[in-house]
């Protein structure tokens, strides 16, 4: 009877991760991984019955290393705004990691031919993170800090904004380096845009946002309309 150990399992995952990133999912065989590990295919299958299961374990292990620390920010003791800002910066840093970029490129390139690859990656990666962010957003909604809405959609919106701009350009190979200043600027934009759209007046105080003053009762609103009409005529 073969004895399975955590050390051997971790070794397999490290070798498999490198193989998937270097050769892609399709071109990586269980036989090649077994040879690189230095054991038989039966030993490898004793740990992972299929290549899909092995790939899922690789993605999960990467998540434990990188994603879990990012999501732990949501359990922090800072103000909601500090937590949201720190989360945005951490998500952007993660998305720009060479390993994360290479993984996304591989999945996008091969998910059409191997749908199980995309499903496994999404379940162990993005879906895992978005679910945790949605739970935090739901708590903010229940506290009256954010307007009622589907927290899953808000989490996806937050994540999509983090992926935009420099992160998308890096993924497409347009740029190879995004400075810390650019990352901070994107994170600030994400937080401000998100709060502008979804924070309640009560939430503004908690999140540290200042809403524009309402027009005064002495004709400010009418003056604003007149100005708008004048601008329209000028156009």
From TrEMBL:
SUPFAM superfamilies found in the cross-reference section: Homeodomain-like, Tetracyclin repressor-like, C-terminal domain
Record's compositionally biased regions (Low complexity): 224-235
Domain of life from the UniProt record: Bacteria
Keywords tagged on the record: DNA-binding, Transcription, Transcription regulation
Descriptive protein name: TetR/AcrR family transcriptional regulator
UniProt entry tagged with the keyword DNA-binding: yes
Organism placement in taxonomy: Bacteria, Pseudomonadati, Pseudomonadota, Alphaproteobacteria, Acetobacterales
Positions of the HTH tetR-type domain: 6-66
DNA-binding region boundaries: 29-48
PANTHER family for the chain: HTH-TYPE TRANSCRIPTIONAL REGULATOR RUTR, NALC
Residues covered by region (Disordered): 206-235
Keyword DNA-binding appears in the UniProt entry: yes
GO terms for MF: DNA-binding transcription factor activity; transcription cis-regulatory region binding
Organism: Rhodovastum atsumiense
Alphabetical list of InterPro entries matching this protein: Homeodomain-like_sf (IPR009057), HTH-type_TetR-like_transc_reg (IPR050109), HTH_TetR (IPR001647), Tet_transcr_reg_TetR-rel_C_sf (IPR036271), TetR_C_Proteobacteria (IPR039536)
């Amino acid at each position: 009877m073969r004895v399975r150990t955590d050390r051997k399992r971790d070794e397999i995952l490290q070798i498999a991760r490198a193989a998937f990133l270097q050769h892609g999912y399709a071109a990586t065989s269980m036989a090649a991984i077994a040879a690189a590990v230095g054991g038989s295919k039966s030993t490898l299958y004793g740990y992972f019955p299929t290549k899909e299961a092995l790939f899922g374990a690789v993605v999960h292990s990467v998540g434990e290393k990188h994603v879990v620390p990012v999501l732990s920010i949501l359990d922090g003791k800072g103000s909601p705004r500090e937590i949201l800002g720190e989360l945005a910066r951490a998500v952007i840093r993660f998305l720009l990691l060479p390993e994360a970029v290479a993984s996304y490129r591989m999945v996008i390139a091969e998910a059409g031919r191997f749908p199980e690859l995309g499903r496994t990656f999404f379940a162990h990666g993005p879906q895992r993170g978005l679910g945790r962010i949605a739970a935090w957003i739901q708590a903010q909604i229940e506290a009256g800090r954010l307007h009622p809405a589907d927290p899953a959609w808000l989490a996806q919106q937050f994540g999509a904004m983090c992926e935009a701009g420099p992160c998308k350009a890096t993924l497409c190979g347009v740029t190879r380096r995004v400075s810390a200043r650019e990352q901070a600027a994107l994170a600030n934009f994400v937080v401000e845009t998100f709060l502008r759209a979804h924070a309640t007046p009560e939430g503004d105080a908690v999140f540290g946002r200042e809403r524009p003053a309402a027009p005064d009762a002495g004709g400010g609103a009418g003056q604003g309309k007149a100005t708008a009409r004048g601008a329209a005529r000028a156009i």
